[in-house]
Design a protein that fits this description.
Layout lengths: L1 H21 L6 H22 L4 H24 L5 H20 L2
Helix pairs in contact: 1-2, 1-3, 3-4
């Protein structure tokens, strides 16, 4: 269950990172409220995961999920540049997440 909590925390991290851009510097109230709620949810699920996972592993996986998801949504939603090298770097982050999952009991 703790890995599921960590995955959900990562999804909420992606949500608040994208939401942060949509707030336009916290000048739009609805996106700001949604972003803050996603931040709270992300930290809550991370805290649940940390009850049973090592700190370093959980934090690395949490930020890795956030990084990968944010890059993908940046490409899709904001037309950020795509290159083979950029996708290769994302693949490296993904392989690090998988490696940490496989090595953690």
């Amino acid at each position: 269950m703790h890995w599921l909590y960590l995955f959900v925390a990562g999804l909420f991290e992606v949500s608040w990172a994208v939401g942060l851009k949509l707030t336009h510097g916290f000048s739009l109230i609805v996106p700001t409220i949604i972003t803050i709620l996603c931040m709270i949810a992300s930290f809550y699920f991370l805290a649940l995961a940390l009850k049973n996972l090592p700190l370093g592993t959980a934090y690395a996986v949490w930020t890795g999920i956030g990084t990968i998801g944010t890059v993908i949504l940046g490409i899709i939603m904001f037309k950020e540049p795509v290159s083979v090298l950029r996708l290769f770097c994302i693949a490296l982050i993904f392989s690090g997440i998988v490696g940490l999952k496989l090595l953690t009991h």
